């Protein structure tokens, strides 16, 4: 399984990525719970809405750090390619959904689903590309 | 009087150094312009039809909805081609960083808006705006990064 071998940069990436993704999930649950429990208004409500966005910035910084630390150009290119595929998929999905909302009256797309869906598409692209280059 | 380099184009002589583009970046700008032009024409066309009461149904509605996404894919393919063609590794690095900022910008915007949409009376985020917002975030951060590293 040569395609799954990891180097120090990949290991550091996962050590940073997993806790930050966990922090995102926790921030989501905390924000949801606090909004339902305390019904905040004004600045506090906006603050709670912004809370899950902080780990999102963290994830982007972690990807940037990995790209700077990874010495294997092939692995770097692989991540960039998968990010582009993930991005293409999520931007296409939101565009198609937006037009279908107008024409076919489909259920409105929840914008906060963009982030988790982007990573799902990116994971699928990673699996496909790793399989292709195995 | 100091003569300017004959090989330099008019635009290169006028532009500050950090704005000058490599041949790969010029090709990217050319392809991107066409892809954005196609996106704008298709989007305006669909909006115009919708505004005038044309509401296709069934398979036609899905077909129409997919059209602007083809232009979106074309912009990302042109970005991928640029990364493949750019020989200056530093420029490639700046471009990748700008994509990351673009992704970060759009993810933060949609996440915050999504939550506010659920719990406040803020208007619905119309998802066809995701792509134009990404382009704005990515282009601005690319120019900022190039200016910072001039």
Query: What is the mean pLDDT of chain B?
Result: 83
Shape of chain B: flat
Please identify the oligomeric state. heterodimer
Give the tally of β-strands of chain B: 0
Integer-rounded radius of gyration of chain A: 18 Å
Shape of chain A: flat
The number of helical segments of chain A is: 5
The arrangement of helices and strands of chain A along the chain is HHHHH
Order of helices and strands of chain B: HHHHH
Strand content of chain B: under 5%
Q: Structural class, judged by helices and strands of chain B? A: mainly alpha
* Alpha carbon gap, first and last residue of chain B: 27 Å
Biggest sheet character of chain B: none
Query: What is the number of beta strands of chain A?
Result: 0
Largest interface: A-B, 45 and 49 residues
The helix tally of chain B amounts to: 5
General description of the model:
The complex is a heterodimer of chains A (134) and B (150). Chain A has 2 domains: 1-71; 72-134. In chain A, 80% of the residues lie in helices and 0% in strands. Chain A has 5 helices and no strands. The N and C termini of chain A lie close together (8 Å). Chain B is 75% helix and 0% strand. Chain B has 5 helices and no strands. Chains A and B meet through helix 2, helix 3, helix 4 and helix 5 of A and helix 3, helix 4 and helix 5 of B.
Give me a quick take on this structure.
The complex is a heterodimer of chains A (134) and B (150). With 134 residues, chain A is mainly α.
């Amino acid at each position: 399984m040569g395609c799954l071998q990891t180097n120090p940069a990949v290991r550091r990436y996962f050590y940073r990525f997993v806790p930050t993704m966990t922090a995102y999930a926790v921030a989501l649950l905390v924000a949801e719970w606090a909004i339902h429990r305390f019904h905040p208004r004004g600045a506090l409500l906006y603050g709670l809405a912004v809370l899950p966005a902080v780990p999102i910035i963290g994830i982007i910084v972690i990807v940037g750090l990995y790209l700077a630390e990874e010495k294997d150009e092939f692995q770097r290119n692989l991540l960039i390619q998968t990010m582009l595929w993930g991005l293409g998929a999520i931007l296409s999905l939101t565009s198609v959904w937006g037009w279908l909302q107008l024409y076919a009256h489909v259920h409105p797309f929840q914008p906060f689903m963009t982030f988790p869906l982007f990573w799902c598409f990116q994971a699928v692209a990673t699996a496909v590309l790793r399989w292709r280059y195995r | 009087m100091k003569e300017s380099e004959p090989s330099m184009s008019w635009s290169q002589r006028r532009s500050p150094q950090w704005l000058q583009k490599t041949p790969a970046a010029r090709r990217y700008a050319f392809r991107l312009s066409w892809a954005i032009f196609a996106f704008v024409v298709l989007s305006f066309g669909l909006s115009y039809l919708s505004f005038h009461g044309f509401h296709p149904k069934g398979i036609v509605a899905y077909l129409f909805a997919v059209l602007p996404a083809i232009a979106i894919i074309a912009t990302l393919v042109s970005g991928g081609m640029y990364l493949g063609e750019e020989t200056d590794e530093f420029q490639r690095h700046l471009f990748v960083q700008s994509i990351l900022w673009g992704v970060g910008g759009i993810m933060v915007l949609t996440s915050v808006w999504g939550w506010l949409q659920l719990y406040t009376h803020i208007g619905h985020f119309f998802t066809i705006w995701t792509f134009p917002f990404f382009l704005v975030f990515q282009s601005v951060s690319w120019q900022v990064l190039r200016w910072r590293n001039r």
